[in-house]
């Protein structure tokens, strides 16, 4: 070997033959961000479809100069197709694309639904497409910040065995970390994420509203450190991180909470009671809640469920069934 031979720089990733043309069907919050991330990895977005004004604005911001065309035209132009539509719309979209002959053999067809695996793409697979399910476990804003947030984001990945390497490569190129999910486990996987993330937003929004009603001028500033610490503790320690009046068995405090919520924010009572009972069960099972305190606490929660006087809220004057968990 000649030691004086010139050393060559590694090729630019954009020059690798594996670079793909990318199309997006459904310019919601997810699709343009993923396509923008793939562009940073050297792939080339060539077409996007979107109907609403908001979709068109997102596409213009995240994928400038990429033409807006009908879905069938997206498939005609691209080798890698991102199907980023709502879960309930996905099966009909796949059937429609196959029915019109838009799907070509050898195309990578990727959907981002958490609910579905690759079986929902079976009609396209029979037409020769290569099916992948890549679900980013992240909330999206529809802005450029989403591209940055993909760094280190876990993706729930389902793919045929022969496409696992391709799926892994795409996720890594977008900055994410692949987590393999079996086809039959997709609904449970998605339910777990919704329970943790979607419901968290509701709980935080309700908490902020109640703090404002209590006279707190900056509820976000008050909650930020508290919720950050609670999340960190929960991720590190699970149920051992439980604290507060329910885990301690402070039945009187919980009863006062329920009374105040009924007075000032009755729409929050059902959620408070449901979460309090679940918290009590977990605290009791893990030895955090003393059994002698649990009886009084669960009694308060049962009284809270029926309004505290034995009457079912569904028979009350206000007719709100939502107060019953």
Automatic annotation (TrEMBL):
Species of provenance: Streptomyces qinzhouensis
Domain Putative oxidoreductase/dehydrogenase Rossmann-like: 16-136
Gene3D superfamilies associated with the record: NAD(P)-binding Rossmann-like Domain, ProC-like, C-terminal domain
PANTHER family: CONSERVED HYPOTHETICAL ALANINE AND LEUCINE RICH PROTEIN
Domain DUF2520: 153-278
Annotated spans, Disordered: 300-325
UniProt-listed Pfam families: DUF2520 (PF10728), Rossmann-like (PF10727)
Family annotation (InterPro entries): 6-PGluconate_DH-like_C_sf (IPR008927), DUF2520 (IPR018931), NAD(P)-bd_dom_sf (IPR036291), OxRdtase/DH_put_Rossmann_dom (IPR019665), TM1727-like_C_sf (IPR037108)
Bias (Basic and acidic residues): 303-325
Name of this protein: DUF2520 domain-containing protein
């Amino acid at each position: 070997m000649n030691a004086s031979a010139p050393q060559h720089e590694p090729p630019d990733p954009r020059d690798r033959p594996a670079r793909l043309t990318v199309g997006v069907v459904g310019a919601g919050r997810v699709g343009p961000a993923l396509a923008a991330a793939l562009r940073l990895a050297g792939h080339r977005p060539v077409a996007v479809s979107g109907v609403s004004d908001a979709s068109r604005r997102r596409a213009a911001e995240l994928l400038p100069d990429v033409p807006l065309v009908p879905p069938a035209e997206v498939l005609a132009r691209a080798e890698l197709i991102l199907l980023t539509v709502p879960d309930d719309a996905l099966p009909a979209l796949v059937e429609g694309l196959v029915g019109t002959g838009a799907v070509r053999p050898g195309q990578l067809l990727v959907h981002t639904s958490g609910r579905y695996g690759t079986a929902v793409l079976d009609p396209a697979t029979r037409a020769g497409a290569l099916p992948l399910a890549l679900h980013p476990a992240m909330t999206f804003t529809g802005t450029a910040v989403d591209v940055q947030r993909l760094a280190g984001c876990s993706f729930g990945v389902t793919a045929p065995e022969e496409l696992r390497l391709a799926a892994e490569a795409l996720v890594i190129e977008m900055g994410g970390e692949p987590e393999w999910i079996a086809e039959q486990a997709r609904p449970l996987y998605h339910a777990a994420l919704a329970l943790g993330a979607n419901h968290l937003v509701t709980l935080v929004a309700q908490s902020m509203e109640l703090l404002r009603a209590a006279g707190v001028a900056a509820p976000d500033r008050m909650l930020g450190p508290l919720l950050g610490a609670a999340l960190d503790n929960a991720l590190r320690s699970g149920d051992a991180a439980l604290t507060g009046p329910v885990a301690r068995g402070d039945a009187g405090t919980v009863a006062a909470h329920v009374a105040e919520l009924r007075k000032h924010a009755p729409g929050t009572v059902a959620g408070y009671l449901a979460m309090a009972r679940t918290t009590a069960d977990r605290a009791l099972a893990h030895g955090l809640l003393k059994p002698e305190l649990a009886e009084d606490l669960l009694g308060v929660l049962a009284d809270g469920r029926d309004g505290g006087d034995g009457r079912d809220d569904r028979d009350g004057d206000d007719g709100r069934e939502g107060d019953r968990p």
